[in-house]
């Protein structure tokens, strides 16, 4: 039986390339994003290699629309095995700059939108009796760094939510996976001054797809060196980290 996966924010970046990975593996796909045109192009590209493909316009900051979109996609695909809460924004915001519009969008999308997606996914999985929720946090959640306070805080918040969700649903046939990518080559981070341990988008999303299929609880991506680097970051003195700004 063909497995199915829904990915939010699938029109670009990690979401687009993750969709490409699962299309190659023959999954049926539900692809959502704020604009339909890039999703339509992906559906055309995947024809013949993926299973059934459904596209829907969805802005996760419009929280009330999420349950309905997920329900429609589940109905069209005969259920959803995996839902990936991927949609996110990556503003660089220095503290005290007063960029409240960017701060609010980060909170609306990366925290509230992501959690609203997860809530709708878990409700759907409870009706189905099974399912896997995948949430994307980031290595940025490990330590607050210059310019990354708001983004890192948003990813830390979603990560804590996913930890609690894993504990609360462990006896319900629901798997909760948290992936924390490092620098994977996408538009979101190409303007960064430094991108340590950078991997290509194809490699990064292939590793992510492998970990999703293994139903891991939590992993950094790539697992190495980021598992070690995350521990080092926790203990580096602030005087050294401040120079990164």
Describe the protein in words:
- The chain has 245 residues and is α/β, with parallel strands linked by helices.
- The protein has a single domain (4-244), classed as 3-Layer(aba) Sandwich (Rossmann fold), CATH 3.40.50.720.
- The protein has eight helices and seven strands.
- It has helices at residues 13-24, 37-46, 66-77, 100-128, 149-169, 201-213, 223-235, 238-241, and strands at residues 4-7, 28-33, 53-57, 82-85, 131-136, 174-181, 218-221.
- Strand 1 (4-7), helix 1 (13-24) and strand 2 form a beta-alpha-beta unit.
- Helix 3 (66-77) crosses helix 4 (100-128).
- It is globular, with a radius of gyration of 17 Å.
- The N and C termini lie far apart (51 Å).
Keywords:
globular; Rossmann fold; 245 residues; 15% strand; alpha/beta
User: What is the H-and-E element order?
Assistant: EHEHEHEHEHEHEHH
CATH class identity: Alpha Beta
Characterize the overall form.
Answer: globular
The structural domain count equals 1
Mean pLDDT: 95
Estimate the helix proportion, in percent.
40-55%
**Number of β-strand runs:** 7
Structural class by helix and strand composition: alpha/beta
Low-confidence stretches: none
How much strand content do the residues show?
15-25%
Number of helices: 8
Measured between the Cα atoms of the first and last residue, the distance is 51 Å
């Amino acid at each position: 039986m063909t497995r199915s996966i829904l990915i939010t924010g699938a029109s670009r970046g990690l979401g687009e390339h993750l969709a490409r990975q699962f299309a190659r593996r023959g999954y049926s796909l539900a692809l959502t994003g704020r604009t339909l045109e890039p999703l339509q192009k992906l559906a055309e590209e995947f024809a013949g290699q993926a299973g059934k493909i459904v596209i829907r316009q969805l802005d996760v900051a419009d929280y009330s629309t999420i349950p309905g979109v997920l329900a429609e996609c589940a109905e069209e695909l005969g259920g959803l095995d995996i839902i990936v809460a991927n949609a996110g924004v990556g503003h660089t915001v220095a503290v005290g700059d007063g960029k409240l519009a960017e701060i609010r969008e980060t909170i609306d999308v990366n925290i509230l939108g992501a959690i609203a997606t997860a809530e709708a996914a878990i409700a759907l999985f409870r009706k189905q009796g099974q399912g896997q929720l995948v949430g994307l946090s980031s290595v940025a959640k490990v330590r607050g760094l210059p310019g990354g306070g708001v983004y890192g805080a948003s990813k830390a918040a979603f990560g804590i939510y996913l930890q609690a969700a894993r504990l609360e649903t462990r006896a319900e046939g629901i798997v909760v996976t948290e992936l924390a990518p490092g620098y994977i080559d996408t538009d979101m981070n190409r303007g960064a001054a430094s991108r340590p341990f950078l991997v290509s988008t194809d490699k990064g999303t292939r590793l992510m797809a492998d970990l999703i299929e293994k139903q891991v609880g939590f992993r950094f991506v790539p697992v190495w060196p980021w598992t070690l680097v995350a521990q080092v970051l926790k203990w580096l003195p602030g005087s050294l980290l401040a120079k990164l700004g």
